Amino acid sequence: MSYSVGQVAGFAGVMVRTLHHYDAIGLLVPSARSHAGHRRYSDADLDRLQQILFYRELGFPLEEVAALLDDPAADPRAHLRRQHELLTARIERLQKMAAAVEQAMEARTMGINLTPEEKFEVFGDFDPDQYQEEVQERWGDTDAYRQSQQKTASYTKEDWQRIQRESDELTRRFVALMDAGEPADSEAAMDVAEDHRQGITRNHYDCGYEMHTCLGEMYVNDERFTRNIDQAKEGLAAYMRDAILANAVRHTA
User: Fold this and answer.
1) 3-state secondary structure at position 205
2) Tell me: the pLDDT tens digits for 125-167?
3) Strands, E assignment, 43-176
4) Is residue 79 part of a domain?
5) CA separation for the pair 86, 201 (Å, rounded)
6) What sign has the CA pseudo-torsion 71, 76, 80, 83?
7) Do 120 and 235 belong to one domain?
8) Residues linked to residue 3 through DSSP beta bridges, in sequence order
């Protein structure tokens, strides 16, 4: 069985002139010629071409490919072992490159990747990107900010909906405790504050007790936070701040 140069080019996905060049430099000389002088390739020629293309894919220059294939001490099993080793090494390099690209993509991803419609569906009339510039200016150099950016870069609409449900449930629990007359430093209120801290750690960044108390203070010192939190119940921001502080004292004293 023999094949024309056009057939071989089609099989291998290379150009005819590439095969002509390989013939001219002695890298792949067809085993036969037709009566008209046209190149005819055998199955053995196709096997050699496969080896050539493999090494070329790995970046070997043609001279080295020829030396490898024409080595009298090499046998087919030796070539297979060498190819396996080279492929394994290349896979490792590609995996490292892919990881680096993923990190670069995360580093370039800022804010919440939702369409305007999805943002409204998840957050209602609160736009989480509204204060993005301020947030980056105040905390952009912190580990917490970088960690949060890396985590949230891959979040989907469903992830944000889950986080919003968790936040709403925490608000409901705080309000229920206020309505029941539970003081902010009660065990029940501190337990909700602890769940609040763990939710931040789970969904955004490592939130230690010192960081958590800073957030609690911001809830009452920044009127924007106070106004937003107190929509659920008047005085909720201050109640949360006090519960967060009591919980921090409970765990660090």
Assistant:
1) coil
2) 444 444 444 444 544 455 665 776 677 677 777 877 888 889 8
3) none
4) yes
5) 42
6) positive
7) yes
8) 41
